[in-house]
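Working notes for the structural subgroup meeting. M.R. asked for a predicted model of this chain before we commit to crystallization trials. I am recording the input and output together here so anyone reviewing the notebook later can reproduce the run.

Input as submitted:
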Amino acid sequence: MYTVKIDGDKCLGCRLCAIVCEGLDVRSDVLAYVAEPDKLDNVKEAAAICPENAIKVIEEN
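Returned structure, recorded in token form:
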């Protein structure tokens, strides 16, 4: 399980994260968010491709 933090000041709303991880989406205000917490299997990959490093993933034990 992961805690995902998205920095709204850095997020460009490019949707790359949402393309890679189906648990993420971009709202109408052009900021990424966790839409489906149970579908974050690829969230680390999404964080890695974020051009602004706006996504932080914290693994929980």
